[in-house]
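Sample 1 of the test manifest.
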Amino acid sequence: MCGGLPNSSVDRRLFTFVTTRLRWCAGIPMAPQLFDAVLAVWVSVTDRSRMRAMEQLERRLCAMPGVSIGIHALGGVGFRFKDVEFAHLHATGLFDVLLRPGDAETVRRRGEARPHHRFPESSWVSYWINDDRDIPGACHLASLATDCLAAGIALPKSATD
Amino acid sequence: MANAGQGALIWPSLLLVPFIIGFVAAWCWRHLDLGQGPTIGYSSVTAFIGLFGAWLVFREGMICLVIVAPLQFLITITGSLTARVLFKKSGPLCAFSLPVIFLAGVLEPRMAGPSSSVVTDTLVIHASPAQVWPHVLAFGPITEPPGFWMFRMGLPYPESTTNTGDAVGASRACNFSGNAVFEERIVEFEPQRLLTFDIVKAPPDPELLGHLDAHRGQFELIGNPDGTTTLIGRTWYTLHVRPGWYFDPWTELIFREVHLRVMRHVRGLAELQR
């Protein structure tokens, strides 16, 4: 596997704790955005190369035809292709991408991404941005999703599809 | 700020104001195409300017600013990061969001008024209620230097208490550092058991003005079978700043330290007498 691996940084451990044990907090208005902002502040202070890589990824994805950004409901930045959210980037550098079931299985088998951190059986895959060496891998995953959408192929509607 | 019951305008909570500040700031920066890192940096500067302005223009107390700073920074940053993404899209969503934010700022304070609560602290004194009671009524200067970090930063702390009589209606004065005086009037007086007083006038301290009203204080003495006394100190207060879940713990912490400074002094005087 060439990149996109998680590390055991404080913010990622906290993120894992909150998303597994305090998931109910997501129902509080703006709580996910506040939590993501806290993590973003932490990362911008403690791991600037990761923050720079995340910014670069955002710029690269926004430069792709048809891609726009928006607020992800569970915190972080969502990436949309013609109003379909196909990926989102959390402040920890966790990049989740929605693929066709076949593509998801392929990238997981090749080690190009890992099963989604919350829904490992779904068509979502997870990829961790640690520095700018992880950007090509993330862009590859994003282009798999946008190519499908551009070709009119629908992606699964929910994590349980 | 005014009481909700008087129908006057109330400021939105200190959750909404910094969020709006961050939101508006991101709108101003929308053409700069900022990433998350620079947005966080610029928002931090914005939050700092807000705090500095509060100190310079509104004469907010330093302790208040220290307490509010974490909230100010984090919520401003949250507002900026949220709006940064929002304003990268053009179209009706952006135009829609600004009136929504404005309406939230107007409507939110009408949904939550000031909050009232009581802080209670307990201390066991190795002396009888008869030995403790005189020192509850009045005590001389507390010479021990303050240990609590906020007192060392300049928050007024109790130094002595005087009274003009030992009956309902008598006046008391609780003297704090920096010549701050809380004028009190006794409303309940049961010797060796209960002393309750209303706070009729608080000092014009910037740490309090508009933020917090202390209404009433109380000392209750309970004689224990082993000859000791359980001294209970209570303060009733109303908090005018929100969100309550953030400011209540700070308020309780401050009143607790005030209580304990006085109660430990009373304990020292009473136990010395034995």
